Amino acid sequence: MGDAKRNREELRKRMLVELERLMAPTSPDEERLNDEIRTLDFYSISRAPDEQLAYGRMKPQQCHQNAGSYARLDPSGRSRHVSGWWKRGEIFYFHSVVFVQGRLFCVTPNPDRAPLKFAPDYDIKWHEAEGKMDSLRRGREVPYLVRDFPDKVIAGATAAHDELMSGADPRTLKLVF
Fold it and tell me: pLDDT digit string (tens) for 39-98?
């Protein structure tokens, strides 16, 4: 198997795992949290410049670690790690950013340079357990994502999953929520 085909198959596997997460039935906990997130104030925030992210050795898809490191390593001591919800389409993703000099900004590299819709959630608390940082929201584990309109997301994810299972190229697949 060539590299291109192997990469395509690896992408297909990762996409199937993510789609199965999105297809999971909704729960009362998700519905309650969804209602609470909708009441939060969302802000349009920018990403830090690429040079700053490279200098800080920030890693893609490591937002919680990036924001925590940035705040800890800030020589002025003024930066704060802020966790909350990134509204991306029909999904709220658990995300962390930094608050510096009256501004929120994202310190996680991403090829999409568009501003993020982000809502701080001050009910999310971080604590260390057995050498690892964990987060809780009102005593409960914080989920990776919360679907804003679960039925719509489940239908779109199911359609995309079916396309992948019938041989669609994962690089051309479009998710519609």
Answer: 999 999 999 999 989 988 999 999 999 999 999 988 899 999 999 999 999 999 999 999
Task: Tell me the two tokens of residue 99.
Answer: 């608050």
CA distance 153 to 82: 27
- The C-alpha atoms of residue 37 and residue 123 are separated, in whole angstroms, by 11
Summarize pLDDT for 89-148 with one digit per residue, the tens. Answer: 999 999 999 999 999 999 999 988 899 999 999 999 998 878 788 999 999 999 999 999
Rg (CA), the chain: 18
Per-residue CA distances from 29 to 21, 34, 41, 124 (Å): 15, 8, 21, 15
Q: How many residues comprise the chain?
A: 177
User: At residue 127, what are phi and psi to the nearest 5 degrees?
Assistant: -145, 155
For residues 78 and 98, give the distance between their C-alpha atoms in angstroms, rounded to a whole number: 10
pTM here? Answer: 0.88
Amino acid at the residue 170: P
- Candidates 109, 94, 106; CA nearest to 57 is 109
